[in-house]
Amino acid sequence: QVQLVQSGAEVKKPGASVRVSCQASGYTFSSYDINWVRQATGQGPEWIGWMNPNSANTGHAQKFQGRVTMTRDASIRTAYMELTGLTSEDTAVYYCARVGAYCSGDCYAMDVWGQGTTVTVSS
Amino acid sequence: EIVLTQSPATLSLSPGERATLSCRASQSVNNYLAWYQQKPGQAPRLLIYDASNRATGIPARFSGSGSGTDFTLTISSLEPEDFAVYYCQQRSYRPPRLTFGGGTKVESK
Fold it and tell me: What would the mean pLDDT of A74-83 be, rounded to a whole number?
């Protein structure tokens, strides 16, 4: 079936970096954008950025400028999101999500989500 | 930057009742608005896209309406599994981003 499987939980010290992976299966990896979203405990989702697995083009929220890098390894159908300069404010569950199945005039709806990766930043 | 405001923050209802959730955008998003359901410990689940289209497999008791700046998600008759948090989401271009609303929690009365 169509699914995204993410890497396991991470605990990092302030100032460190974290890389989360997201492996796709059950569909053509290159045909759908991968978006990254995070959610702190008790808060709503927050969009981080997107990547087109075919072109490797990316975009991200201004808030993460200079700190986020999104890449992919198409040979293993896996997308990666790396966040540097971690602080306690980055403690959250990080999700990857697919966009592209429901596109009429625009593409923005996330129809398949990974299970989430908990990233804890603590000294 | 477009801001999505959801109301109410919490809705206390009983199974079988009708739920009406609101999402208001600070400027027009045409009809490019999605709704998601999220249960504790789970990822969000897409319910509605383009304001009124149900995603595959979503029961008919879920319906969306609205355009421009005012949108509504209606659950016609609440089932026990519908008690959850609901988020609206849209896409903007100046600056380019996806934005979520603050959520409405539908809880059992």
Answer: 98
Average per-residue pLDDT in chain A? Answer: 96
Measured between alpha carbons, how far is A59 from A69 in angstroms, rounded to an integer?
Answer: 9
Structure tokens belonging to residue A88: 């306690």
Closest by Cβ to A59, choosing from B46, B89, B96: B96
Residues of B in contact with A106 (CB under 8 A): 32, 91
Share of chain A above pLDDT 90, in %: 93
Distance CA(A105)–CA(B45), nearest Å, equals 21
Residues of chain A in contact with residue B103, where contact means CB-CB under 8 angstroms, are: 44
pLDDT at position A49, please?
A: 96
State the nearest Cα–Cα gap between B18 and chain A, in angstroms: 24
Residue B27 confidence class, pLDDT cut points 50, 70, 90: very high
CB contact under 8 Å between A104 and B50, yes or no, is yes
CB-nearest partner of B55 from A59, A97, A111: A111
For tokens 């954008």, name the residue.
Answer: A33
> Which of A102, A109, A77, A80 has its CA nearest to residue A3?
A77
B71/A116 Cα distance (integer angstroms): 28
pLDDT at A114: 98
